[in-house]
Input
Amino acid sequence: MNHPDEYKIAFTGLIQGEHQFRFEVGDAFFAEEEDAEILGAKVDVEVTLLREERMMDLHFGIRGRVKVDCDRCNEPMEVELEGTERLIIKLGERYYEESEDVQIIPESAHQVDLAPFLYEYIHLLLPARRVHPDDGQEGNRCNPDVLKKLEELHVHPAGDPRWDALKQLKEKDKDN
Output
């Protein structure tokens, strides 16, 4: 991931205490990634950084919209995102990940690149199943041609006669 300096925070000159940062994550952020699920984005990220002597506590507030493909019809759709994340960065001897939300960076480092964390956090906010909503009046927003073809290809399983016999026994039991 090679993003410009706009997602980096230089922390060496920051005094201890709370600092606010704001980032806009747009289409270009995800365009560089070949395997990105996100086709477009307009996401605002507010970061509150609490600077201490040997560590930084970062709180991310993420809100916006991203464009992804629908899991049902494969047409682009927009998804609203909103969430918070927390990252603790400690100063140490070398780069390594202590846990999923605690990173160690060398004491010689003077800035932290938030781009990989923003990429991960935005992807984690995506719903597991992304389909066009069913609006009631307007109906389903999925491509109607694809929905029609899916219905044609849908296999309706035949009943298993052994289960049918058991169902009949169960129904007789209810009647008694």
Q: What stands out?
A: The CA atoms of residues 28 and 120 lie 16 Å apart. The chain has one domain: 1-176. The beta strands are 8-10, 17-26, 40-51, 55-69, 76-92, 96-99, 102-106, 111-113.
